[in-house]
Structure formats: C-alpha cells, structure tokens
UniProtKB/TrEMBL annotation, chain A:
<keyword id="KW-0456">Lyase</keyword>
<dbReference type="InterPro" id="IPR027417">
    <property type="entry name" value="P-loop_NTPase"/>
</dbReference>
<dbReference type="InterPro" id="IPR003593">
    <property type="entry name" value="AAA+_ATPase"/>
</dbReference>
<dbReference type="Pfam" id="PF00005">
    <property type="entry name" value="ABC_tran"/>
</dbReference>
<dbReference type="GO" id="GO:0016887">
    <property type="term" value="F:ATP hydrolysis activity"/>
</dbReference>
<feature type="domain" description="ABC transporter">
    <location>
        <begin position="5"/>
        <end position="250"/>
    </location>
</feature>
<protein>
    <submittedName>
        <fullName>Phosphonate C-P lyase system protein PhnK</fullName>
    </submittedName>
</protein>
<dbReference type="GO" id="GO:0016829">
    <property type="term" value="F:lyase activity"/>
</dbReference>
<dbReference type="InterPro" id="IPR012700">
    <property type="entry name" value="PhnK"/>
</dbReference>
TrEMBL record, chain B:
<keyword id="KW-0479">Metal-binding</keyword>
<dbReference type="GO" id="GO:0019700">
    <property type="term" value="P:organic phosphonate catabolic process"/>
</dbReference>
<protein>
    <recommendedName>
        <fullName>Alpha-D-ribose 1-methylphosphonate 5-phosphate C-P lyase</fullName>
        <ecNumber>4.7.1.1</ecNumber>
    </recommendedName>
</protein>
<keyword id="KW-0456">Lyase</keyword>
<keyword id="KW-0408">Iron</keyword>
<comment type="function">
    <text>Catalyzes the breakage of the C-P bond in alpha-D-ribose 1-methylphosphonate 5-phosphate (PRPn) forming alpha-D-ribose.</text>
</comment>
<dbReference type="GO" id="GO:0098848">
    <property type="term" value="F:alpha-D-ribose 1-methylphosphonate 5-phosphate C-P-lyase activity"/>
</dbReference>
<keyword id="KW-0004">4Fe-4S</keyword>
<dbReference type="Pfam" id="PF06007">
    <property type="entry name" value="PhnJ"/>
</dbReference>
C-alpha cells in the first residue's frame, strides 16, 4: 500500500523557542495516529505544520496527491494547497468557533465545501447536508439553526460533518473532545471511531487523554519538549512503555 | 481652467485626477477587480458619494453633459447637491435626460432608457467588497479574489433560500464580471443587474471611504450569481406605472394621501416623464 503522508525531519521554532523538532513518521491510508504529550510539548504545533496551517522551519511533508503521488505540500502552489486542504483533507479544531462559520446555519456550514468545489444545485446541497447531519447524529430539524444554538458536543459533530462532506482521505483533529462533559465525550469518540472506520479515513489526532488514544488510535506518538520520545502501536506503547517519560505518563493518567 | 473662485476645474487638482485616472485605467483593464486609490477628502461627508464624485471629477471635461440621479430621481437632495457642485466647479452642462447625458453619476439605480456607446455610468459605492460579510480580514479577501475562491458567495445565497424559500437579496446582488471577479454592483436593485450585462456604456464604480475603484468595460459579460434550481430573477409588479403605464420599469410604491392610498410609479422620473410626453398614460391619468 502507498504511504498517504510521509514526514521527514520536521521542525518548527518560534524564534529561539522550539515548537517541535526532528519529527519523522509515515501514515498509511485508513490509519489513525494519536499524538500525546504534556501541555507545551508541541502537539498543536506539529499538527498545524502537518495540516499546512503553519509553515515548518525545516523538514518535508509529502502527501499522496490523487494525481501525482507523494508531493511536498510546500512545493504546491498556494491555490493547489488550499484546494487540497478543503477537499482531500479535513481539519477539526479544538474550539468549534475556529472551525465553524458561526454566522451561518448548520446546513450552510456543511454545504460550504460543496459550494467551494462548484456545487450549484441548492436542493442537492441541502440533501447532502441533511444526510451528513444524520450521520453525525444531529436532528435534521436543526439544519437552519445557527451553530451558536448548539451544545458543545453538537458543534464538534457539526465540524466533523462540515469536513467529511467532501470525503477527505485525511483528517486532522486537535483535542476534539476536550472541554466536553464525559458522557458527551464518549458519544463523540464513538461517532468518530465509527465514521473513521466506515469511511476508511486516515486520521492524525492530538489529545492529552490516553483513553481517547486507546479507543481510536492504531499508532501512538509520545511527545516531550517538542521531540517524539516514543512511537509505536498504541497497545504496545501503552501496555509496555519503553521511555521513562511514557512510563510516567501511562502510570499517572491511566486509572489502574 | 477654473470656474468657482480658487478651485481647479472639477475641484480636484490635476495630479489627483491623474492618479485616479490611472486607477480607472487599471480597473478597466481588469474588469471587476477592485483597484485601491488614494481617496481625497471631499467637501461632502462619506456616504454622500465621495467615491463617485472623485471618479466623475477625474473623467469630466468641459464638453460633457452630466446627469446625477439618486433613487432614480434627479431632484433629490443628494443628486441636486452633486450636480450643483460640478456646475460650480466645472461649469459644464447638466441634464435630467438620460439620452443627453455623456456621464451619469448614480446612487441606487441604472436608468430605464438603454445606455449607448460613449456614455459613462459612475456608481457611488458604500461597500465595495462582496466578501466582507463573511471575511473581515482584508488580506484574506484579496487572496480569495486572487484565487477565485467564491464558494462563500454561494453560502450567502444558500442562507437566503434556507430562511426565506427564495433568494431574498434584493439590492447589491453579487455578480461575476467577465467570468472572473465577483463584484458588488452597489446598492442598485437586482432589477438593474441585467442592464450591466453587455452594456455599450463604460461603467465605473467609486468607493470613497474604502478607497476602491472598479469597472465594467463596454460589452462585458456580467452574470448574477444563483443556483441551478433557484435561478436569478428580477422583481416584477402586478400593476403598471400609474402615471405612464410602463409595465417593464422599476416601480416605487408611494403613499398618496393620509387615508392609506398608494400607487406604484416609475422610480426613474426621466423615463416616466418621457413616456408621458410621448402620450402614454397610466390608470392615474386615465381615471
Ligand atoms: N505562536 C507561538 N509563538 C511562540 N511560541 C509558541 C507559539 N505557539 C506555541 N508556542 C510554543 O511552542 C511550544 C509548543 O506549543 P504547542 O501549542 O504546540 O503545545 P501543545 O502540546 O499543543 O500544548 P497544549 O497541550 O497545552 O495544547 C510551547 O513552548 C509554546 O509556548
Ligand atoms: Mg495544543
């Protein structure tokens, strides 16, 4: 199988401060990669670099473009990269306000990507929006409501629908469940798992919650101070952590 | 040449006019593209058409005949003020007649009488950026225009239909110019949008506060955005103009007495008067 994403020697610094450093990994289609680490360890920085929201200071991110195979995303022209980001990729933000258009309805939020790639039939766009609201378990009766009238969990689900409507092959998520009640988190995680499995979407998901990782991620990267200190199959890393930092992380967070 | 004491012809100094003309030339070369220009302070507050006035001042010559309309009429305060401003500072001829005008500065309407080659429309524009409603960042809207990323304009129309069952945008209805730039036509009714398409006249748009000039050259394609299943449509009325009987002009509803009496009349007073002079009548006249 071809690699979907190939990351080599990726670094990002903010002036003299290190955001992330020397990160390398491959991601295959349908694979879910979890990134964990303490606050400030560089998870968001890494995710923003991977998803082309932030230009790295060094290194290479190659993506398997549908037409031309593995391509350095920073060698693409800006229109190509922006098109990639809103068709073949999805980005689910920690804060729904960063990922949704709060001033337009739920239906418009879901339909936007379709219109961005040229959909011009209102009825079809609406049907598709209803379909996706159903898939993310939002009552289609809420299709014309503003996202601000939705609960936190619904807003996250709406973000997911908005991203998946163009059938991306790769979705980036930064702490998609943080800030939600535990029961709401569980439902959202369950939904993400179902959708990702059913649609075969590859996913890079940042979290500080090892429970999320256990449930969703096939593979796991542990970060500390901008560097990846451990990387492997999720179960292996969690059940038999090698790096002292991971051992600490696992023992302190996982309920025994 | 100078008319009113102490002012240059048409008020603006020649250097400023040349700067504005350069912006106009660039705007004509890239139909629908918003060209920044160094907007000057004018002896009128913003919102009174300072952008349009600067464009007019930059293109006006002593042989021109100027018509100024506001809400379709030549005798409203705004139109009267602008007309007398140019009479004082440039001394050229003015007219109420669309046919006689070489330059027509407008707010809110395009005349009903078809424009012809050689005429120039100058629109007063309050908000030139059609993407502003969804994207407050100037850098981002520029990028969106540059890459022709116009999906969000459809989102706006989608919202209209979702909430009202039809595209309810009635003024400043967005258009795509020459198949490329999406443009705000200024607060004219969508009724006037089709008149912009393939017009023999040159159309210039000036936004004073926002410091932008844009243009539609003669015979340029201008399409109103829409959906396949909700095609663009202009307003229509059940009745004809009560004064001239026109069934295909834009009508204003006016209150005729304090007992709730109303009638519909042409908003374009020159067009209406011309029809009456030619012998047409509406039900008001017939009654
Ligand atoms: N815009 C920025 N400017 C300067 N430094 C930054 C910026 N963003 C992040 N950093 C620094 O980079 C490092 C990594 O931050 P990052 O936000 O990637 O961590 P994180 O793992 O996502 O943390 P958290 O779990 O709190 O979200 C930190 O030292 C942080 O202070
Ligand atoms: Mg973070």
């Amino acid at each position: 199988m071809n690699k979907l994403l190939q990351v080599t020697d990726l670094s990002k610094n903010y002036g003299s401060r290190i955001g992330c450093e020397g990160v390398a990994f491959d991601l295959y289609p349908g694979e879910v990669l979890g990134i964990v680490g303490e606050s400030g360890s560089g998870k968001t920085t890494l995710l923003r670099c991977l998803s082309a929201q932030l230009e790295p200071s060094a290194g290479r991110i190659a993506y398997d473009m549908r037409t031309q195979g593995l391509t350095d995303i920073w060698s693409l022209s800006e229109p190509e990269r922006r098109m990639l980001m809103r068709t073949d990729w999805g980005i689910v933000h920690q804060n729904a306000r960063d990922g949704l258009r709060m001033e337009v309805s739920a239906g418009a939020n879901v339909g936007e990507r379709l219109m961005a790639v040229g959909a011009r039939h209102y009825g079809n766009i609406r049907t598709e929006a209803e379909d996706w609201l159903t898939k993310v378990e939002i009552d289609t009766g809420r299709i014309d409501d503003l996202p601000a009238t939705f609960s936190g969990g619904m807003q996250q689900r709406l973000q997911i629908a908005r991203n998946l409507v163009t059938q991306p092959r790769l979705v980036f998520m930064d702490e998609p469940t943080s800030g939600l009640d535990v029961s709401v988190q569980a439902r959202l995680l369950d939904l993400i798992r179902t959708l990702v499995n059913r649609l075969g979407i590859a996913c890079v998901i940042v979290t500080h919650d090892l429970g999320v990782v256990r449930l969703l991620a096939h593979r796991l990267m542990v970060m500390r101070r901008g560097r990846v200190v451990e990387h492997g199959l999720t179960d292996q890393v969690l059940d038999d952590p090698q790096h002292p930092y991971t051992q600490l992380l696992v023992s302190s967070i996982l309920p025994v | 040449m100078s008319t009113a004491q102490g002012y240059n012809f048409a008020y603006l100094d020649e250097q400023t006019k040349r700067m504005i003309r350069r912006a106009i030339l660039k705007a004509v070369a890239i139909p629908g593209y918003q060209v920044p220009f160094g907007s000057r302070e004018m002896p009128l507050p913003y919102g009174w058409g300072t952008g349009g006035i600067q464009v007019t001042a930059a293109i006006l010559g002593p042989d021109d005949t100027l018509k100024v309309i506001d809400q379709g009429a030549d005798d409203t305060t705004n139109a009267v003020n602008i007309r007398s401003f140019f009479q004082k500072t440039a001394g050229m001829a003015t007219t109420d007649r669309t046919r006689e005008a070489s330059i027509i500065q407008t707010r809110h309407r395009i005349p009903e009488t078809p424009l012809v080659e050689g005429q120039i429309m100058v629109y007063q524009v309050p908000i030139p950026e059609p993407l502003r409603w969804l994207e407050p960042r100037e850098g981002e809207t520029r990028k969106m225009h540059g890459l022709a990323e116009y999906g969000v304009m459809q989102v706006k129309l989608y919202e209209d239909i979702a909430h009202y069952g039809h595209i309810s945008t009635a003024y400043d209805y967005p258009v795509r110019v020459n198949g490329r730039y999406v443009m705000s036509p200024s607060p004219i009714p969508k009724f006037d949008n089709p008149k912009m398409d393939n017009s023999p006249a040159l159309q210039l748009f000036g936004a004073g506060r926002e410091k932008r000039i844009y243009a539609i050259p003669p015979y340029t394609r201008v399409e109103s955005l829409d959906f396949e299943d909700h095609p663009f449509q202009i307003e229509s009325w059940d009745q004809a103009c009560a004064i001239c009987g026109s069934a295909d002009s834009y009508l204003d509803e006016i209150v005729t007495d304090d007992k709730g009496g109303r009638m519909f009349v042409c908003s374009d007073t020159d067009y209406c008067g011309e029809r009456v002079a030619a012998g047409h009548t509406g039900e008001e006249q017939a009654a």
